[in-house]
Write a structure and sequence with these properties.
The protein is of the alpha/beta class. It contains 11 helices and 26 strands.
């Protein structure tokens, strides 16, 4: 029996824009967790290591993605972290119990090593401070260490430790998931709001050029969701630049349609937080706009059972090492589309994480390879620049646990400088192809540059070190333009990148 080809229509206007894409929407995250740092980006003695012990193979893959910013050093890790442990002579750095993940942290890799790595990776740094077990003075001290030129106690300590010039870190997280009872130093909304506001004020007195991210809810299901955001913003509205969101999705029920509909929940989450931000703006009678930092998002569930069996108090075990399949790549594609559709307010977003730990890149002692989710992330980062156009998708929907879900997720981006249009589209229908149509007559002389397709017959297909090319994108001829009208065939269960020139 042949597949049914369903129809979907994209509507957009070149002059009706959502907002310009902040490239930091394609950021990522490296936490001192599992093998993200040790054996992931740093492995002295490896045949892949450079003169600083940094893995060249992972650096190559990170540069391929073009990651603009990396959040560091956590995550849950940061809430009991003493940044001073991570600087100075390596042989003098203390080994610490790390209670968040039940391991031992050697501090062999620290702030200076990370900043060196970031330079080689062509990325900027988003540095998270400990507002769990530490506080306002420590926040001030780390900004002094990182960003003041010299002539003070902590800036001169940095210079003594080998960095004559300041690191000039411009984006700072005021703690991590402080709404979560699992967090070391967990606080009520009122407690966190006061601490974060005062820390942020003091940090900005040292460096007025920095931007500050306050902790929002760890997910939409938190019992304090909504009230947490409003309480934090009402206290620190004038101090904060961004409010954070975190969410992860899993297919524990092995229901692929429901799993792929998770982007509906993500969209609702973003819309709700925007509404809260604007509510506080209204009651403050403020002209300032608070934007969003979705600084943890991904699929995470494959490794949960394995991690329950890990031995405690060891160094960098194989922890949170999800092996991603093809359906995970489809959801990651839809989540990227969701972030882009809110480009007017989501200015920072971090795929969590980057290497080995719930990551698009995996390593072993014999190499590094791309997981399935690598491809939509890399292609969105490389091709999803410019301005997001208000994109209306007319297509069938299906019922899911998250509400009605469209079979097609899509967004259109315009890059006037390079005269390109990019259409990202996910077909979540497991059986049927869709024919996508769009009127392009407003872009005179528009031509198809390429149609990149990621699909597979088996939604559970994975990439491994032995078979790294099991799920990979290909260039296809599924798109054509006739008389200024685009038609593209989106195969069932597929991620599509349609690039047009005009």
């Amino acid at each position: 029996m042949s597949k049914e080809i369903k129809k979907t229509q994209l509507y957009f206007d070149r002059n009706i824009e959502v907002g310009e894409v902040d490239k930091r929407i394609y950021s990522s995250f490296i936490e001192h967790l599992g093998r993200a740092v040790y054996e992931g980006i740093y492995q002295p003695g490896s045949k892949f290591a450079d003169e600083d012990g940094l893995r060249k193979d992972t650096l190559d893959l990170i540069r391929e993605i073009d990651v603009p910013c990396v959040r560091y050093p956590g995550g849950n890790f940061v809430s009991d972290f003493h940044w001073e442990d991570s600087v100075g002579p390596v042989d003098k750095r203390p080994h610490r119990i790390e209670p968040a993940w039940g391991v031992i942290e050697t501090n062999e890799f620290g702030m200076h090593e990370f900043m060196n790595w970031a330079k080689k990776a062509n990325t900027q740094t988003m540095y998270a401070i400990n507002l769990g077990t530490r506080g306002i003075e420590d926040a001030k001290n780390v900004v002094e260490y990182a960003n003041i030129k010299g002539g003070t106690y902590y800036s001169d300590m940095r210079r003594k430790n080998g960095a004559e010039d300041p690191f000039n870190i411009k984006l700072w997280c005021l703690g991590n998931e402080m709404d979560g009872p699992w967090q070391m130093g967990h606080k009520t909304a009122e407690e966190y709001a006061r601490t974060a506001t005062e820390a942020g004020k003091l940090m900005r007195l040292l460096d007025p050029s920095i931007e500050l991210v306050a902790c929002g809810s760890s997910n939409m299901q938190m019992p304090t969701f909504g009230k947490w955001e409003s309480t934090v913003l009402e206290e620190g509205y004038d101090t904060f630049d961004y409010l954070s969101l975190h969410t992860y999705y899993g297919n524990q029920a092995n229901n692929t349609p429901d799993f792929l509909a998770s982007s509906v929940n993500m969209d609702n989450f973003i819309s709700a937080v925007i509404s809260i931000c604007d509510y506080v703006k209204a009651i403050k009678r403020s002209n300032k706009k608070i934007n969003l930092s979705f600084d943890e998002w991904n699929v995470w569930y494959h490794s949960n059972e394995q991690d329950k069996k890990l031995e405690k108090w060891v160094e960098h075990p194989h922890q949170l090492e999800d092996i991603y399949n093809f359906e995970d790549a489809l959801l990651v594609g839809s989540m990227l589309i969701t972030l882009l559709r809110h480009a007017d307010r989501v200015k920072v977003a971090c795929l969590a994480q980057l290497v080995n730990v719930i990551a698009p890149i995996m390593t072993s002692d014999t190499g590094a390879w791309r997981q399935t989710i690598f491809y939509p992330y890399m292609q969105a980062s490389r091709f999803g620049r410019g301005v997001v156009l208000n994109t209306v998708v007319k297509c069938d929907t299906y019922e899911s646990v998250h509400g009605d879900a469209p079979f097609i997720d899509s967004v259109v981006l315009k890059d006037e400088e390079n005269k390109t249009l990019t259409i990202f589209a996910v077909n979540k229908d497991l059986e049927n192809d869709f024919e996508l149509s769009a009127d392009l007559r407003q872009f005179e002389g528009c031509k198809v540059a390429e149609h990149i397709l990621l699909t597979h017959d088996d939604v559970k297909a994975i990439n491994t070190e032995e078979n790294p090319n099991n799920v990979i994108p290909v260039t296809c001829s599924n798109s054509k333009i006739d008389g200024g009208h685009l038609t593209s065939v989106l195969p069932s269960k597929s991620w599509n990148v349609i690039r047009l020139t005009y």
